[in-house]
Amino acid sequence: MNDSVDSTDPDTDATFDPDRWREELETKRAEKDEFFGDHPQSPVPPEDRDGFDGLDYFEPNPTYRVTATATVHDDPEVLLMDTTAGREMRYLRVATLSFALDRDDDELEDGTFELAAYQLESPNEEPLFVPFRDKTTGQQTYDGGRYMELAADRDLEDGDELVVDFNLAYTPFCAYSETFDCPLPPEENWLEVTIPAGERFE
After folding, report:
1. Domain-by-domain residue ranges, the chain?
2. Diameter over CA atoms, the chain
3. Per the UniProt record, which residue ranges are transmembrane (predicted)?
4. What's the average model confidence in pLDDT over 112-121?
């Protein structure tokens, strides 16, 4: 079960409804908790599911729902992404997403940031894969980083704007069981900023 967001989300800043957004986010979280606790394909080992009482999350915060501008790579480079099991997976770097973060606190972390978006090298219709680390990694969140997925309903073009909601950032399955092998965020996606949004893991 993956958390994804439609990257062509029509909810622009002008039409964004924070109450509806929060309600939909809480519904997604409740559905995921049910999946983790009961589903045969849950990453939580069967012997631990009776004691599972839900995932930990940061409080929903629309500050970390940002609009990113895409730079599309017409001839995407292959990137070998290390995995938790010591393998390498071949991904294509298909786009770079640039976005601004406006912080309300006193930390000097405002500014513009970039994340690379990837797809597996094999032809597929999978969403854009955006693994990342930030300053919560290894402290409030999983030390192997977190993931986001952006589902586009058409091919991206230069200058397209995408909604990137860090409140949907999730912990990879390998955090719960060694039977899973997960890609590790490459260094170009290590953000030098605190992103207290999405799933926690301590």
Report:
1. 4-200
2. 48
3. none
4. 94
In this predicted structure, the answer to whether residue 2 has a pLDDT above a threshold of 80 is no
Instruction: Decide if pLDDT at 153 tops 80.
Output: no
Q: Where are the alpha helices (DSSP H) in the chain?
A: 18-38
Check residue 163 and give its pLDDT. 94
Closest CA to 147 of 83, 102, 88, 104: 83
Query: Which residues on neighbouring strands pair with residue 79, listed in sequence order?
Result: 91
How far is residue 176 from each of residues 95, 116, 200, measured CA to CA in Å? 30, 26, 13
Give the whole-angstrom CA distance, residue 92 versus residue 97.
Answer: 14
The answer to whether residue 67 scores a pLDDT higher than 60 is yes
Q: To which H or E segment does residue 56 belong?
A: strand 56-57
16, with CB counted inside 10 A (0-12, 13-18, 19+), is middle
Q: What backbone torsions phi and psi does residue 136 show, to the nearest 5 degrees?
A: -85, -15
2: phi > 0 → left, psi -120 to 50 → alpha, else beta; which? Answer: beta
> What span, in angstroms and rounded, lies between the C-alpha atoms of 194 and 61?
13
pLDDT in tens, 88-109: 999 999 999 999 987 655 454 5
Query: Among residues 171, 165, 179, which one has the least CA distance to residue 131?
Result: 171
